[in-house]
């Protein structure tokens, strides 16, 4: 290959040796990296170069000259078009091997860490595991409604009626709901991309409690002008007895955010109840909860085993609705949770009360970097929590019970430093990893044990390199878990001890 894309009709034969982090096949031609969507390690492929980047070429898969021994027939008929699951054609053992190596290579190459991860814990179910779906909607030029995930690398919706990675009870709702939304005549915002002005429905969101069976249905729209929405909600509640609520979420901004700040209940209630790791959780339509409940419960078991006898306090950053905080409190730990989403904090407090754990748990609204610095600063915490915090806390709540909880928030910040030593900091950040301020606080205050649950091995490797620099911490254990079979994503739990 000459290093340009002149003559795009020219075909090239290439052996695929690896996958990118996004699940694209990676091979080499004349020493240059070539990325081929849909190709797998071990494939001998015939490809056509479509784009020449500075350091690599991009090609389309024309044909397989010799398929990989790890290749299988995908369980989904849309696998070659839909961008939701990029590894469906790779058999389960090969997915486990690749994800194991992805974590190991990320730690070594990106983090410069000489750490061998534990064997990956595969998901008990490679299909039917997802407890949530947020499905983009559009209408065609002829006015027909389409629902589905985006084609890889685009905003083109691949129309679907079934999704095999969804919990089958949610999957069975997709086709009839599409028919109902078609019949409703409601306007549909094509896909809510950046720069597009919203004009109606944007997404259909479904959520289920894997153990309770309770379900939530949420319509995400740019405005609330959906005639007859309450009547449709009543029909759906009657059709599916396990459906406990139908809500409308308003997301009017012309950007890629899935949910907006306003929820309205059209029928039933705006939360479902789920049994998880020995506690009962209220889960809202737009709050974060791990999509693979069974693997999240394995994380709880790993945490309880790793932390041992409860001593001192656990501070959890990015605590959400109390998914990990509450099971730890049930195991005997005192927990102080920090979360920027005020709706999630309200649910965390309600969940603590529901499980009789309010005396062991305190949840506060705020940015993790700021709150963590305050909570870990033992000599200044009490001075830094002032009357202004009472006003801030009160502004973040509306219900009478949460006003009481807001007062507890102020006292809790003092108590963290003054009354009980912080023994563990637990972190479950978004894909971008830890903010610089969080890393700086941890290196300065150096709590005895850090537990980091990551959904991106690359940002985990970066953050572990920063935390272990100059011997501040040492990595004790790295445990990969597959929360997302048939995709290129992998979760990693890391334990660090103070150096």
Task: Tell me about this structure.
- The chain has 499 residues and is an alpha/beta fold.
- The chain folds into 3 domains: 11-66, OB fold (Dihydrolipoamide Acetyltransferase, E2P) (Beta Barrel), CATH 2.40.50; 132-276, OB fold (Dihydrolipoamide Acetyltransferase, E2P) (Beta Barrel); 287-498, Rossmann fold.
- It has helices at residues 92-110, 168-184, 229-239, 293-307, 325-330, 342-354, 368-376, 381-384, 387-395, 400-418, 436-445, 457-468, and strands at 11-19, 25-29, 32-36, 44-52, 56-66, 132-139, 145-147, 201-208, 215-221, 243-250, 262-268, 272-276, 279-283, 313-317, 334-339, 361-365, 422-427, 449-454, 473-481, 491-498.
- The strands form 4 sheets. A 7-stranded mixed beta sheet has the order 16-15-14-17-18-20-19, with helices on both faces. It has a 6-stranded mixed beta sheet with strand order 7-6-8-9-10-11.
- A hairpin with a 2-residue loop joins strand 2 and strand 3.
- The termini are far apart.
- The relative contact order is 0.10.
- Weakly predicted, low-confidence segments: 1-7, 379-398, 414-419
- Going by CATH, the architecture of the largest domain would be 3-Layer(aba) Sandwich
Whole-angstrom Rg:
24 Å
Structural class: alpha/beta
CATH domain class of the largest domain: Alpha Beta
Helix content: 25-40%
Strand order of the largest sheet: 16-15-14-17-18-20-19
Helix count equals 12
The CA-CA distance between the termini, in Å, is: 50 Å
CATH fold description of the largest domain = Rossmann fold
What characterizes the major β-sheet?
7 strands, mixed
CATH superfamily membership of the largest domain: Vaccinia Virus protein VP39
The average pLDDT is: 90
Question: What spatial form do the alpha-carbon principal axes imply?
Answer: globular
Sheet-strand content, in percent, reads 25-35%
- The domain count comes to 3
Give a count of the beta strands, DSSP E runs of length 2 or more: 20
């Amino acid at each position: 290959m000459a290093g340009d894309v002149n003559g795009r009709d020219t075909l090239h034969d290439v052996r695929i040796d690896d996958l990118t982090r996004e699940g694209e096949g990676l091979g080499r031609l004349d020493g240059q990296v070539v990325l081929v969507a849909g190709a797998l390690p071990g494939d001998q492929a015939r490809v056509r170069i479509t784009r020449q980047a500075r350091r690599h070429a991009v090609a389309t898969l024309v044909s397989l000259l010799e398929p990989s021994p790890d290749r299988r027939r995908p369980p989904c008929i849309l696998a070659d078009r839909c961008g939701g699951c990029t590894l469906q054609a790779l058999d389960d053992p090969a997915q486990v091997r690749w994800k194991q190596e992805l974590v190991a290579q990320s730690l070594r190459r990106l983090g410069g860490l000489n750490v061998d991860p534990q064997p990956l814990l595969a998901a008990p179910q490679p299909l039917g595991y997802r407890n949530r779906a947020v499905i983009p909607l559009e209408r065609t030029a002829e006015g027909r409604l389409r629902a589905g995930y985006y084609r890889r690398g685009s905003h083109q919706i691949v129309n679907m009626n079934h999704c095999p990675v969804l919990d089958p009870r949610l999957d069975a709702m997709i086709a009839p709901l599409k028919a109902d939304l078609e019949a409703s005549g409601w306007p549909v915002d094509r896909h809510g991309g950046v720069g597009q002005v919203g004009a109606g429905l944007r997404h259909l969101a479904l959520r289920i409690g894997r153990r309770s069976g309770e379900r939530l249905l949420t319509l995400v729209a740019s405005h609330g002008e959906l005639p007859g929405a309450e009547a449709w909600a009543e029909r759906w509640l009657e059709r599916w007895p396990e459906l406990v609520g139908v809500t409308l979420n308003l997301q009017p901004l012309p950007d890629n955010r899935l949910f907006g700040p306003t929820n309205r209940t059209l029928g039933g209630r705006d939360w479902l109840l789920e049994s998880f790791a020995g506690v009962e959780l209220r889960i809202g339509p737009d709050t974060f909860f791990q999509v693979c409940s069974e693997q999240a419960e394995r994380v709880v078991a790993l945490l309880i085993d790793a932390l041992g006898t409860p001593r001192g306090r656990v501070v959890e950053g990015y605590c959400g609705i109390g998914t990990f905080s509450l099971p730890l409190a049930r195991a005997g730990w005192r927990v102080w949770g920090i979360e920027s989403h005020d709706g999630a904090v309200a649910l965390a407090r309600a969940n603590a009360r529901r499980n009789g754990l309010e005396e062991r748990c305190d949840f506060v609204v705020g940015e993790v970097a700021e709150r963590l610095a305050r909570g870990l600063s033992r000599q200044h915490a009490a001075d830094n929590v002032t009357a202004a915090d009472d006003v801030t806390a009160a502004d973040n709540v509306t219900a009478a019970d949460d006003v009481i909880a807001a007062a507890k928030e102020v006292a809790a910040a003092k108590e963290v430093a003054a009354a009980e030593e912080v023994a563990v900091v637990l972190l479950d950040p978004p894909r971008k990893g830890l903010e610089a301020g969080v890393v700086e606080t941890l290196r300065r205050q150096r709590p005895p044990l850090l537990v980091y649950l990551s959904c991106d091995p690359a940002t985990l490797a970066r953050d572990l390199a920063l935390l272990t620099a100059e011997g501040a911490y040492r990595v004790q254990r790295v445990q990969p878990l597959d929360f997302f079979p048939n995709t290129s994503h992998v979760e990693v739990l890391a334990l660090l001890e103070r150096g």
